[in-house]
Amino acid sequence: MPLLFDNTPLHIDLTSPTLLYADDSHTVHWLGISAETAFRCNSYLICDGEQAILIDPGSRAWFRQVVDRVAQILPPEKVTDLLLCHQDPDVAASMVDWLELNPEVRIITSPRAHVLLPHYGKADFS
Questions:
Q1: CB-hemisphere CA count at 13 Å for 17?
Q2: Cβ atoms of 100 and 74 closer than 8 Å
């Protein structure tokens, strides 16, 4: 059985987020994707006070599921940042949907990925 950082058993339920870490104002959740697919993205939500960073939000096909998982933790429009590890569609394509949900969400990525992200159809992001 997988263990958390403090050696407590880790229970993974593919219908809800998995809490990986928590202290006074800081949490880390694995959001997961429930289907077995060749391109299964591991999305995470890190919350620290008023900041909520969604790491690798996933493909557009899984946007609704990721939003629903985030909604179990906080209102999805409260996500402040998207951290994109790279520009591939399975990792980053739902960026456009998140920008529709919250036009103020900040996109954090490498310079190489940043120049490719407008190809998803949304060039006016910060």
A1: 22
A2: no
Q: CATH number for the domain including 107?
A: 3.60.15.10
- In a domain, residue 69? The reply is yes
Q: Which residues pair with 106 in a beta bridge?
A: 81
Q: How many domains does the chain have?
A: 1
3-state secondary structure of 101: helix
Q: Residues 28-50: pLDDT tens digits?
A: 999 977 666 666 678 999 999 99
**What predicted TM-score, i.e. pTM, was given to this entire model?**
0.84
Tell me if 94 sits within 8 A of 58, measured CB to CB.
Answer: yes
The continuous run of DSSP H or E covering 47 comes out as: strand 44-48
Asked whether residue 22 is assigned to any structural domain, the reply reads yes
- Domain membership flag for residue 123: no
Would the pLDDT of 1 be above 50? no
